Amino acid sequence: MSARILDGKAIAREIRGELAEEVRQLKAHGVTPGLGVLLVGDHPASRSYVTAKEKASAEIGILSRETHLPASASVKEILSAVDAFNRAEDIHGILVQLPLPDSSMERDVLQALNPDKDVDGFHPVNVGKMVLGLPTFWPCTPHGILQMLKRSGIPVAGLHVLVMGRSNIVGRPLSILLSMKHALGNATVTVCHTGSRDLCRLARESDIIIVATGSPHTLTADMARPGAVVIDVGVNRVEDPTHPRGYRLIGDADYEDLLPRVAAITPVPGGVGPMTIAMLLHNTVQAARNQNRPKLER
Ligand code: GUN
């Protein structure tokens, strides 16, 4: 039997349709959600993510404004670009595309964001609120995964979920959100990482395996039990001279080998990626609403 393919593109389209209606309503009250995008350097993958986020924003009526700085930009220049977005009244959400060319700057740059505009949910104040279950912006990839599972009719409550990877952007917040008691959570969660022993055993004991390690072939077919659900967060470029671009994208899981074994799996591309973008739009609409409460209640 072949796995059900979880179509992130289709689910994200559905969410964008719902958000387009919300944007129409906000505009009827004189509010146009605005997203400030900060890209530092010319990393090809980051450039293409940012372009996709800007295009998706425009399609549902969100205004986006990009600041593009050279890879050589100083921390002062980056902080000044963040500050300009913090002050801009027509910008409700700010996206600083990561990684920055100098990743040691990330902590200071993320802390400089106005937490009310931090639509990635990366500011320490918002991470703290998320952990405590207070209203805040949930990071886009973890929230996208929770929405994808819910909208695919795969409730995680009570299941054993293995999160492979502990990054600040995906693995750690996802493991927290999955374990919390709310409509999209209440799972039993194990987090594994480069220091974990016996990955095979952990994976075989899991109902849902979410791979977010950034390395191809992290999850091989022998590791998943028949009937498991696999969510692949990885986007890795591998050289492929037969492809027009000279490369193709693969995930962190061995998709072709897992397909006949598992119950459901996300493709790469077309799985988690579009969901991340949809949840960024969701958070931006929410930020615009939060910042215009008096106007909207009139
Ligand atoms: N880099 C990889 N994923 C993300 C994300 O969700 N947000 C930002 N800002 N940068 C990223």
Q: What compounds are bound to the protein? A: guanine
Largest beta sheet: strand ordering = 1-11-8-7-5-6
Query: What structural category do the secondary elements indicate?
Result: alpha/beta
- End-to-end separation in angstroms reads 56 Å
CATH superfamily of the largest domain: NAD(P)-binding Rossmann-like Domain
The tally of beta strands, per DSSP, is 11
CATH class of the largest domain: Alpha Beta
Mean pLDDT figure: 98
List the domain count as a whole number: 2
Extract low-pLDDT stretches: none
Backbone shape: globular
Rg, alpha carbons: 19 Å
SSE order, one letter for each helix or strand: EHEHEHEHHHEHEHEEEEHEHH
Helix-residue proportion: 40-55%
> In CATH terms, what is the architecture of the largest domain?
3-Layer(aba) Sandwich
Count of DSSP-assigned helices = 11
Q: What fold name stands as the CATH topology of the largest domain?
A: Rossmann fold
Largest sheet: 6 strands, parallel
Strand content: 15-25%
